[in-house]
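Hey,
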Amino acid sequence: MDRRALGTVVAAVVAALAVGGWLVLRAGNPYHEHVGGAQGAFPTALGSGAPAAPDRVLRRTSQSYGVDGGLSVDETDDGIAAHDLRTGKEYWHYGRSGTELGTVGFTGSGDTVATWWKDGTVVGTDVRTGKPRWHAKAVYGEPAGSSGTFAALDVVSGLVVVESRDAITAFAEDSGKRVWRGAVPKGCRLSSGGVFAMRGAVVARAECAGTGKADDELPLIAFDTRGGTVRWKVDSGLNRLRPVDDHTLVTSLWTGDGIGAVVDVSGRTPRVTTWPVPALHPTEAAGDGIMLCADNTAGSSDGTLVAYDVADRTKHWTRRPAKDTRLGPPLIEDGRVYVVQQPLLPRSGTPEAAASDLLVLDARTGRQLHSTRLPPVRPASGETGDTFAALTPWQAVDGVVAVQWTGMFAGTNDDLLVLAQ
């Protein structure tokens, strides 16, 4: 074989090897993933359930999605990372190139951190290792040709539920197998606000033809968790709903006329029971048989809490903040109310970093069980005029309480305080 022919053969072989190697690499990592960890022994949770007396700031983390066991799940440039709550060191990270991260969801104390990417890939990541357990497909956001983007993800009742305007799709949390896809009724589109995981149903809010777009006019749609079929649809609005248990939703300001409502969604159709509640007592939290409302009568903006018993429909207790302070949105977990007593908003509506107190109250009586001074925390938004900005207990799980800034303009947490007992 002459030298020219030999050179041609060598070039062909090299090209074939290069193409073959590229195909092998592509086949080996079709999702363009970057996985690192796990680093050392798995960080176990600091406790079980909501802590009775959280009295020390364990760590402050930025751009966080929340706490899962002994880890803080945080945002990175190309995905997510889990950091050890005790040390702050990265335990694992998971990222992808060539696409953007859309939304993240997990339950806390669970096994899976779910991510939905803008190329339409849903990934279930093992919380212990950071390695992907499964991949699935669901078109991110809107159907083709529509304007705007709406995409949400929740991990509820063993399902990873992804929501776009026209449908909800549920994947098995452990395997990623598509369990069902529930189409929204004709003339309706899902609205923001997440879903409620109830007994046998996933309840979502929607905008439908012939109804208004105000919070108190949005219909509710229940998808059966076994097959995704629409179990029922309520046309009259039920705003500021909160789940009080696995089959009951509660709200006040049901119609704007001072009505409280208890909605039992366990049957084929919901059963609604109403009772009179002062017109300016909007629902803030619910759980353990209690509905917590903020007293906004007479122009009050100090966050005074009023607790109603869901079973007997009576007012049980009232909690007012100390002078020159306000109460932020509360959280109910394990028979306790977690709420931050904080400085009043300045006249400009722009919150400032200042010392505040995390209060722990008995949910049934309102009696104060514990108080912890928080360090000054910078707001999550620099926008002016955010009259909803407040330090808010976000999670009480695995022996810790996570506190974040919430408000009209707050997105992913700029600062998350994690407190332990």
